Amino acid sequence: MEPVLDSLMRSYVWHPYTQMKEWPNFDVIVKGSGMWLHDSKGRMLLDGVASMWCNVWGHSKKELVSSMVEQTKKLQHSSLFNLTNNRAEDLAEKLVKLAPNMHRVFYSDDGSTAMEISAKIALQYWYNKNEKKKTRFVVLENGYHGDTIGAMSLGYVPSFFSRYKSVLFPVFRTPSPNSYRIPDGFTFQEYQDFCLDRIEKKLSKSNDIAAFIMESGAQVAGGVIIYPIGFQKKISKLCKRYDVLFILDEVATGFGRLGSIIEYESQNSIPDIVSFGKMLTAGYLPLAATLTNKRIYDTFLGASQQLKQFFHGHTFTGNPLACATALANLSLYKKYNLMSKVRRRSDQLKSYINELFKLRLVGDVRHKGLLMGIELVRDKKRKLPFGPEKRIGDRIFIEARKHGIYLRSLGHIVMIVPPLAISEKELDFLVDGTIETIKRVSDKII
Ligand SMILES: Cc1ncc(COP(=O)(O)O)c(C=O)c1O
Predict the structure, then answer these.
(1) Any residues with Cβ below 6 Å from ligand 1, and which?
(2) What's the CA-to-centroid distance between 370 and ligand 1, angstroms?
(3) Which of 32, 119, 360, 434 is a good FRET partner for 41, with 20 to 30 A between their CA atoms?
């Protein structure tokens, strides 16, 4: 493969999920404006993955930048240990009003820690209620909840995490329905019923389950698997029926990615605990939030010597600058009528599906809102995936660059995840570039 970089620069940075020997240098991004990333050589790339699925308005949005500057002048950071700050308070109120059935907000810095917090709250909820046996989690196979030890335990992706297995805690995994890979002998509907039945059996027969945990709306890092209609709602109901907490991860899907601000609301499901991250600050600063309902929160109340309080906190929990940015971000959704724009862009993205299916290596295209996964296979009929030695993800990235777009694939699954406010013209540019990229990579690979 061609080298990615033409400049040789000295770097001390260790990049995520990267074989540093093969990628000694990367393009240096020096500026972002609107949907575009500018590198040190003056080239521009359209941000096709919203800078890891978090950018909402594009880069350097005026209102967000000025709100950050104004907040920086007043208070940059002050801790939530024994103190509070107005921005953390205002944002918590806003989130509780937006998220049906939620009552309190616990802040953290990223999606992984937000999910660790979800799990710890669930464990301590049962502990505080003196039901100390309830310590196990049931999760969906193929889920992803982050890269810290607890998050890896919950969302175990074998190819990522097998080397850390010795320290991960055991959880029960139940199958999740992928319309493209239905096991032999099932229709898709039958397989959904089978998955639900397996969940029900687990919840009804075990008395040690603290919570069921799943991503809300879709499994994103697991391969862009969009849940069938009603699936999440039915799990929500099973959790109620068997008195198991229902925890949702909206880190990647909350605030508009799938076409609704609060995805669980559009799924008609009611979590006890839900986590948000990524798009909460429009992708401008690290901030995550874990929300719980009143029933859960109340079990943490008591005299301090009872030690029912939540034993968790980070240096930057409730950072006022991040909270101010999130407030500014959320205030713009209405002002710019963002969700109706997302729906129009989503229809536009959908209109490309037939064309994509015609490409030689495209086995499946999965799409909802402004999320699309294009699964490349080496044999369409038998749905045979490419092995890692083909380095499809790297090839796509390198080729896409030549077409002026930044794409980051999940191995052989090409993802289109643009900033939500992308224009019609820019979305065409992105999808046309992706189609060209897939064609060129296909020509080179077989
Ligand atoms: C559904 C989901 N949960 C949690 C995480 C982890 O978030 P972070 O990378 O901010 O730790 C991610 C990240 O992609 C995610 O997609």
Answers:
(1) 110-112, 115, 144-146, 215, 220-221, 249, 251-252, 277
(2) 17
(3) 434
**pLDDT score, position 367:** 98
Half-sphere exposure of 25 (CA within 13 A, CB side): 13
The per-residue pLDDT for 6 is 46
**For the structural domain made of 75-335, what CATH number should be given?**
3.40.640.10
- Do 88 and 323 touch, CB atoms closer than 8 A? yes
1 pLDDT higher than 60: no
Identify the residue whose C-alpha is closest to ligand 1 atom 4: 145
* 91 closest CA partner among 436, 330, 312: 330
Please give the model's pTM, rounded to 2 decimal places.
0.97
For residue 446, count other CB atoms closer than 10 A to its CB: 9
Q: For residue 18, how far is the Cα from the chain centroid? A: 20
**Distance from Cα 221 to the centre of ligand 1, integer Å:** 8
Residue 225, token pair as written in the block: 């698997």
- Residue-level pLDDT at 202: 98
Note the pLDDT tens digit of each residue in 294-323: 999 999 999 999 999 999 999 999 999 999
Six token digits for residue 196: 């639900």
Q: What is the mean pLDDT of the chain?
A: 96
The domain 29-60+337-445 belongs to what CATH superfamily? Answer: Aspartate Aminotransferase, domain 1 (3.90.1150.10)
Query: At a CB cut-off of 8 Å and minimum separation 6, what does 350 contact?
Result: 367
Residue 277 CA to ligand 1 centre (angstroms) = 8
- Choose the residue to mutate in 107, 144, 147, 227 for probing ligand 1, maximizing ligand atoms within 8 Å of C-beta: 144
User: What length does the chain have?
Assistant: 446
From the CA of 115, give the closest atom in ligand 1: 4
Compute, in angstroms, the gap from residue 444 CA to the centroid of ligand 1. Answer: 33
**So what's the pLDDT on residue 2?**
47
Residue ranges, comma separated, of all CATH 3.90.1150.10 domains in the chain are 29-60+337-445
Q: b/e for 309-341, b at 16 or more Cβ within 10 A?
A: ebeeeeebbbbbbbbbbbbbbbebbeeeebbeb
Distance 151 CA to ligand 1 centre (A): 9
Q: What share of the chain has pLDDT > 90, as a percent? A: 93
* CA 73 to ligand 1 center in whole angstroms: 31
Query: Dihedrals φ, ψ of 346, to 5°?
Result: -65, -40
User: Which segment of 7-21, 139-153, 373-387, 408-422 scores lowest on mean pLDDT?
Assistant: 7-21
Atom of ligand 1 lying closest to residue 250 CA: 1
pLDDT-based confidence at residue 9 (cuts at 50, 70, 90): low
**The residue to which tokens 């930048």 are assigned:** 65
Every domain range in the chain assigned CATH 3.40.640.10? 75-335
